[in-house]
TrEMBL record:
One of its GO terms (cellular component) is plasma membrane. Pfam families: 7tm_1. It comes from Salmo trutta (Brown trout). The lineage of its organism: Eukaryota, Metazoa, Chordata, Craniata, Vertebrata. The keyword Cytoplasm does not apply. It is a multi-pass membrane protein. This is Trace amine-associated receptor 1.
C-alpha cells in the first residue's frame, strides 16, 4: 500500500484546522464557516435581537406611561419585559458573535458573567410567569379575596423574588463552579480550552439546575392554568345562564380572557425552552455526546421566546395595540396622554 497519499491528506487536514488563538497552546478549535453562511446567521440573529429589544421597550413604555394599565398583573408583565429586554441587550449580542465566529474572545470572567446572567434571566422569566399565574388564579378563582391578597406589597415581593432568587442561584452556581462538581477532570480534559465559553453541567448539577429553572416551575404553571381553565369554564356557563348584562359578568369575562392570553404566553415559553432543557438534563448521562451546534441552536430557539412575548401581546391585547398606535403616532407626548382610556372598565 502507498501511505504517502494518506500522510499528505493528514497534513492537509491539520493545516486546514483553525483555532481561536493560533499562537496559543490549548486553544479551542474554531468552526470555519463560509461567508455565505455567516451573513444569514448574523442577520437572523440581529433581527431577533432588534425584535426583542424594540418589542419589550414598547411593552415597558405602554404600561409605565398609561395609568389605566398599571394593574398588579401588568406590573409583573413590565418586570418580565425588563427581563426580556436585558436578555436582548446584554446576552443575545455576545451569544450571536460566539455562534457565528465559533469562539469567545472576551475572557474567562466575562464568560462566567455571560453564562450566569443568561441562566438568571431565563430563570427569572419563568419565575415571573409563575407569579403571574398565581395572580390570575386569585383573579379568576378567588375574585372576592383578590384585592385582599394581591396587594402592592404582595406584587413587590413577587417581583423581588423573581429577580433575587434566580440571581442567587445562577451566580452562586457558575462563579464558584458548582456546576462542575463531580466532573472536573472530564471538563479540564475534554471541554475546557482557550477561546471557548461552553455551558457545562455535571449530572447532579444538570438535574438540579433544570429542575429548579424549568421543570418544577413549569409543572406549577401547568397545574395552576389547568385549574383556572376549569373554573373559568364553570363561571362562563353560570354567567351565561344567569345574565349577560351585569358589570361583574363583563369584568369576569375580561379576567378570564386575560388568563387565557397569559396561558398562551406560558405555552410559548414552555415550547421555546423545553428542547434545550431536555438536552441539558440528558447530555451528562450520555457522555456529553450532543453536538455543540445542536445545543447552540436550541439556546437560540429559547431566546426567541423573548421576542415572541410582545408579538403575542400585540396579537391578543387590544389595549396594547391601542397603546402602540398612540406611541407611534406621537400622541404619547401630548399633555394628559397618560390618562387615555385604552379599554372600558
Amino acid at each position: 500500500m502507498d501511505f504517502s497519499n494518506t500522510s499528505n491528506l493528514n497534513s492537509t487536514v491539520k493545516s486546514q484546522t483553525l483555532f481561536c488563538y493560533e499562537s496559543l497552546s490549548g486553544s479551542c478549535v474554531r468552526i470555519a464557516r463560509p461567508l455565505s453562511v455567516q451573513v444569514p446567521m448574523f442577520t437572523s440573529m440581529v433581527l431577533a435581537i432588534l425584535v426583542t429589544v424594540i418589542g419589550n421597550l414598547l411593552v415597558i413604555t405602554s404600561i409605565a406611561h398609561f395609568k389605566q394599565l398599571q394593574t398588579s398583573v401588568n406590573q409583573l408583565l413590565v418586570s418580565l419585559a425588563v427581563c426580556d429586554l436585558l436578555l436582548g441587550v446584554f446576552v443575545m449580542p455576545c451569544s450571536a458573535v460566539r455562534s457565528v465566529q465559533g469562539c469567545w474572545y472576551l475572557g474567562g470572567f466575562l464568560c462566567k458573567l455571560h453564562t450566569s446572567t443568561d441562566i438568571m434571566l431565563s430563570t427569572a422569566s419563568i419565575f415571573h410567569l409563575s407569579f403571574i399565574s398565581i395572580d390570575r388564579y386569585f383573579a379568576v378563582c378567588r375574585p372576592l379575596s383578590y384585592r385582599l391578597i394581591i396587594t402592592n406589597n404582595t406584587v413587590l415581593i413577587m417581583i423581588t423574588s423573581s429577580w433575587l432568587v434566580p440571581a442567587i442561584f445562577a451566580y452562586g452556581m457558575i462563579f464558584p463552579e458548582i456546576n462542575l462538581k463531580g466532573r472536573e477532570d472530564f471538563y479540564e480534559t475534554h471541554v475546557k480550552c482557550i477561546g471557548g465559553c461552553q455551558v457545562f453541567f455535571s449530572p447532579v448539577a444538570a438535574l438540579v439546575a433544570s429542575s429548579f429553572c424549568f421543570y418544577i416551575p413549569g409543572m406549577i404553571l401547568i397545574c395552576i392554568y389547568s385549574k383556572i381553565y376549569w373554573v373559568a369554564r364553570a363561571q362562563a356557563r353560570s354567567i351565561k345562564d344567569v345574565s349577560r348584562q351585569f358589570k361583574e359578568a363583563d369584568s369576569g369575562r375580561r379576567e378570564r380572557r386575560g388568563a387565557n392570553i397569559l396561558a398562551i404566553v406560558v405555552g410559548v415559553f414552555l415550547i421555546c425552552w423545553s428542547p434545550f432543557s431536555l438536552c441539558l438534563i440528558i447530555d451528562p448521562f450520555i457522555q456529553y455526546s450532543i453536538p455543540p451546534l445542536l445545543g447552540d441552536t436550541l439556546v437560540w430557539f429559547g431566546y426567541l421566546n423573548s421576542a415572541f412575548n410582545p408579538i403575542v401581546y400585540a396579537f391578543f391585547y387590544t389595549w396594547f395595540r391601542r397603546a402602540l398606535r398612540i406611541i407611534i403616532s406621537g400622541h404619547i407626548f401630548h399633555r394628559g396622554s397618560c390618562r387615555f382610556r385604552l379599554y372600558s372598565e
